[in-house]
Sequence to fold (192 residues):
Amino acid sequence: MVMTIIVEEGSRKRRHGRKRRVYGFILSLLLIAAWVLVIWSMSNQSYQQQTIQPWLHQWSEKVKIGFVLPDVQFTYGEHDYSLRQRPYDFAEFIFRKSAHLFVYAVLAVLVFGGLRYRKMHMLTCIAASLIVVAIIASIDEYIQQFSPNRTSSIRDIGVDLIGGFCGITIYVAMKTMIRKRRSRRHSSTPNK
Fold:
């Protein structure tokens, strides 16, 4: 009798755990789909809709910089950027590429977390996440071809992959730190 109750309890817990994993995976798929829609909706916006230069001009009128900007210059694609000569273009470029890194870091973490929730091997999750990032980024760049004053660049797909990899790295590092902190806390509490 007691053995039957224990077996039934274990069976119920396993079913509940499986249900929880399925619901968690479905939730992660919905979050991924929503995030991809956000990315693609931004791809459909024109340069004029996305530019931050008007805000930069307003902000710079309020804040007076009391020093000369360094002469940082580089070329990305066909465009030259210079902090001293065209600071607004430079700042907007940095903002846009940082946005690419952030947006695709979040996408990679969502995919990675969803796959890890399904108890898949870590390397498989990393590879699958980066493949999803590459596919979505490629479609994103394709869509940008049709937006006014926007350019499509294979370099941006590379930036997106770097963002995805950094996102996964930060996520795994944070989870590891949290797990270590919890295990230290549990090992330091005296057994009663």
User: Anything to note?
Assistant: The chain is about 75% helix and 5% strand. The radius of gyration is 23 Å.
